[in-house]
Design goal:
The protein is built from 8 helices and 4 strands. Helix 1 packs antiparallel against helix 5 (155-170). The chain has 202 residues and is α+β, with helices and mostly antiparallel strands. The chain has a 4-stranded mixed sheet. Bound molecules: glutathione.
Length: 202
């Protein structure tokens, strides 16, 4: 198997952490530029996005939600998505919340990359409100629990940890640790795991 990534993509990092936690061997190909005409990704994913996973039989899988589902079912080692229907839905909702917060942060980054006179402050403001609401929802839903969704470490924690790291990377002005100490505690625990350490954006 080969996984196409960029070093800072939070969605690709979610998949890399999943691979590490489940001890699944996979070749990693870092794509220097997704916008470049020579990007290998569109040959396997018409959307041209990472992560894209190429299976040994030539099948390609995208996006990260599909890939993590595939990986969790590939081996029973370290199950990260619960079997129980209700519990699984809650874990996947956490993933949707965390991925959605990354989507909003990416939209802000893209808007700020435009020439200053082309930037739309209302777009940035709307996306920042989403980031703020996501952080509030994460903190409120987690409360004083050790993990986000149930008694055990799961895909929900991976998704939230990766999204918080992405906020640190792209919006260091947001002091979410101060405002939401329970998220700070969770994050401090997560970044001790080798899977998080080995995939930190350089
Ligand atoms: N929902 C997708 C999002 C993937 C995504 O947007 N990846 C970004 C990198 S962070 C990308 O490939 N952007 C290139 C583009 O949009 O052309 C997933 O979960 O995999």
């Amino acid at each position: 198997m080969k996984l196409f990534i960029t070093p800072t993509s939070p969605y690709a990092r979610k998949v890399r952490i999943m691979l590490a936690e489940k001890r699944i061997e996979c070749e990693i190909e870092v794509v220097p530029s997704l916008a470049a005409p020579e990007s290998p990704v569109p040959a396997y994913n018409p959307l041209g996005k990472v992560p894209t996973l190429l299976l040994d039989d030539g099948t390609s899988l995208y996006d990260s939600v599909v890939i993590v589902d595939y990986l969790d079912h590939k081996t029973p080692v370290a199950r990260l998505i619960p079997q129980d229907n209700n519990h699984r839905a809650i874990v996947r909702r956490w993933e949707a919340l965390a991925d959605g917060m990354c989507d909003a942060a990416v939209a802000v980054v893209m808007e700020k990359r435009r020439a200053p006179e082309m930037q739309d402050a209302s777009v940035i403001g709307r996306q920042m409100e989403k980031v703020d609401r996501c952080l509030q929802a994460m903190s409120a839903d987690m409360g004083e629990a050790k993990w986000t969704a149930g008694e055990k470490f799961s895909l929900a924690d991976i998704s939230v940890g990766v999204a918080l790291a992405y906020i640190d990377l792209r919006m260091p002005e947001i002091d979410w640790r101060e405002t939401f100490p329970n998220l700070g505690r969770l994050y401090a625990e997560l970044i001790e795991r080798p899977s998080f350490k080995d995939t930190a954006p350089s």
